[in-house]
Amino acid sequence: MSSEKPHRTFSLPVLGDVSRRTAMKAVGATIGVAAFGRAILPLAELKDRVTLQEFLQKHYKELTPQEKATIFERLESETKAQYGAAVSIRDPPPIPGVRFGYAINLSVCNGNGRCAEACHRENNHDRATSQSYIRIFEMPRGTMDLEKGRSTYDHVVPAPDSFYLPVQCFQCENPPCVSVCPVEATWQEPDGIVVVDYNWCIGCRYCQAACPYHARRFNWQQPEVPADEINPDQGYLSNRIRPQGAMEKCHFCLHRTREGRLPACLEACPTGARIFGNLLDPESEIRWVLANKRVFVLKEELGTRPTLFYFFD
Amino acid sequence: MTTLPHTPGPKPTHWVSYPRFIWQSLVLATDGSFMFYAWMTLLTAVALVGANAWAHQVAHGMIVTNMTDHVSWGLYIANFTFAVGVAAGGVMMVIPAYLYHDRRMHDVVILGELLAIAAIVMCLLFVTVDLGRPDRFWHIIPGLGRFNFPVSMLTWDVIVLNGYLLLNLHICGYLLYIRYLGRTPDPRWYVPFIMISIVWAISIHTVTAFLYSGLGGRPFWNSALLAPRFLASAFVSGPAFLIITMLVITRVAGSAKMDFKGPTRTLIQIVRITILINLLMVASELFTEFYTGSAHVAHARYLFFGLHGYHGLVPWIWTAILCNVAAAVLFLHPAIMRSVRWLVVACVLAFIGVWIEKGMGLIIPGFIPSTLHEIVEYAPSLTEWKITAGIWAFGLMIYTVALKIALPIFRGDVNFSRR
């Protein structure tokens, strides 16, 4: 083929005469392909976790009720197989005329951390990493500069001359995380809650870069929860066990709050610092707080319009 | 192959000549000296190590990287950003060749266009290995998945990067095929695409900068100067790589019938300007940050001097500054036009300087301190280094093979009639 000097040739069945160089190329290519196959062999471990149904699953908003039921059943049996726990996955819809709001009284909060623990258990977070959607900052009095706060305090609370600032997803009205998602895997529901379709997220983590409040968490590996600690009361868009490689975040416990119950963090709070309710209901406690307390939000200048408010008495 | 009549008969159709062109390319791509085989074997080995590390990462989760919820992008996105710059930098050969009709640049401009192809493939790979769920890749394909266009800047990046890849594949493929046939390229079939590709090259790096600068919650990136800075540094790193490429080709393949002297001189003159513009913009950003001294300066302070006892990136950024300043001095010195050795040193310094400045020196400090002002440091894990090295090796393989095909065809050593 090439215009070089004639090569030594030898005969092969079917192919006929081939040059030595061509034969060597074929051998090299074969070894290369085989080596590539061997190199990516670890992918075979995925075959139980990434089934064909999983692979072909459509976006949440495109699913019919029938398809949803099939998917929930599949996820339940996968949880049974992988974690040994019997769970039930539901998908409570947003309630018309409801827009959720949250307020935290920083004069009362004493940093005891029960809310973060309750979130950890309610939402089936990975046990080893003590993951939670809530982080509490111990702040020295006289500043709102988070750089002076610490989220890793480990002593009797409240510490003198400190106040405590619990931070979780603020369910912004203008959420930067939703805008940046390239595949619409995260969106805002009519009741204001920003949710993630854990089975649609591609794990690019752009939303994590965009969120100004460190509200999003990534599943760097498959979460581990002992079977007897798994909360079996699960929502598809909320606390079901999340798959490896997908993003997650606080969802105001929508599997509870959309059915008239309170968020787990509020129920666990021993100080009464947390107030949750419907922003559209003029009679609600949250509306009373907004009307009568001097509330503020974090990083208001960014224009994200959080629906979780803070106030001091 | 079957024998075709050598006597001038009816012109063979593309059905005959195009497969022959592909076959000839395959032969050219796989024929070479001992050094060529050694080089390709080395690259293959590194690429395979990277593929293996990536397979482990997909199976066991991104936990094998050192990224965290605090520093959620690392070495992959750093290299992605840099590689976009290299791809865009190739246009610095195209502009003199086609807008200023620099005859000698025109003869070798294909080097820049092929570099763009290899660099864009690297970009796409760096994004893919950064995905937690690469199996859900199809969700981002327009029409098939849900493409959040035009709101998400990442969808813009998907369009401009793939568009740039297609443009350059067409331009290179067309020119090589026509040269192979021994005909003169029809300007209608490539000049419009070249003109589009010039604008497009600017767009890929602008959009990539907008990915970061559009985030209000990340003050270190939230600067209008980011896109111009990206372009200026791209026009340093791209030409620096091309100058070295031309020196290597001259060394290993001989420059017979290809004049690299003029184009090298032009690229040096370009870098003399762009490297200064880049340094000016870096200085301008740093002045604004440090003189104002607002809370925004925390990232820059961490990067350059360390913050609250954390100094992880300080050695990186001072290495980058030293490389960039030294490269600028060398490029401005008249000796650079005469001494190949100093030219190589200057190009390598500039390349490394921009690689750090735009990668570890730009992506990582955006996350440190975090949005809630916590400091969690980051240094890439062994897996991340393996995968990154693998992608670089694969990119170099593509570029090597592309040059192996293109150079003999452009020199006229190989064509359709002379078999």
Describe the structure.
The complex is a heterodimer of chains A (313) and B (419). With 313 residues, chain A is of the alpha+beta class. Chain A has 3 domains: 9-39; 52-94 and 174-249, 2-Layer Sandwich (Alpha-Beta Plaits); 100-117 and 135-167 and 256-311, Alpha-Beta Plaits (2-Layer Sandwich), CATH 3.30.70. Chain A is 26% helix and 18% strand. In chain A, the strands form 6 sheets. A 4-stranded mixed sheet of chain A has the order 12-4-14-13, covered by helices on one side. A two-stranded antiparallel ribbon of chain A has the order 1-2. The mean pLDDT of chain A is 94. Chain B has a single domain (16-411), classed as Formate dehydrogenase/DMSO reductase domain (Formate dehydrogenase/DMSO reductase fold), CATH 1.20.1630.10. Chain B has helices at 14-30, 34-60, 75-89, 91-99, 103-108, 110-130, 153-181, 187-213, 226-253, 261-292, 297-305, 314-332, 340-358, 382-411. Chain B has 419 residues and is mainly alpha-helical. The termini of chain B are close together. The model of chain B is unreliable at 1-5 (pLDDT under 50). At the A-B interface, helix 1, helix 5, helix 6 and strand 9 of A face helix 1, helix 2 and helix 7 of B.
The level 1 CATH classification of chain B is: Mainly Alpha
CATH topology-level fold name of chain B:
Formate dehydrogenase/DMSO reductase fold
**What do we call the CATH topology of the largest domain in chain A?**
Alpha-Beta Plaits
**SSE pattern of chain A:** EEHHHEEHEEHEEHEEEHHEHEE
Oligomer: heterodimer
Shape of chain A: elongated
Determine the strand fraction of chain B and express it as a percent band.
under 5%
Rg of chain B computed from alpha carbons, rounded to a whole number of angstroms: 23 Å
Instruction: Find the count of extended strands of chain B (DSSP E, 2+ residues).
Output: 0
Q: Tell me about the biggest sheet of chain A?
A: 4 strands, mixed
Helix and strand content put the structural class of chain B at mainly alpha
Taking all residues together, what is the mean pLDDT of chain B?
93
Runs of chain B with pLDDT <50, length 5+?
A: 1-5
How many β-strand runs of chain A?
A: 14
Straight-line distance between termini of chain B: 11 Å
Order of helices and strands of chain B: HHHHHHHHHHHHHH
> Roughly what percent helix of chain B?
55-70%
Whole-number average pLDDT of chain A?
94
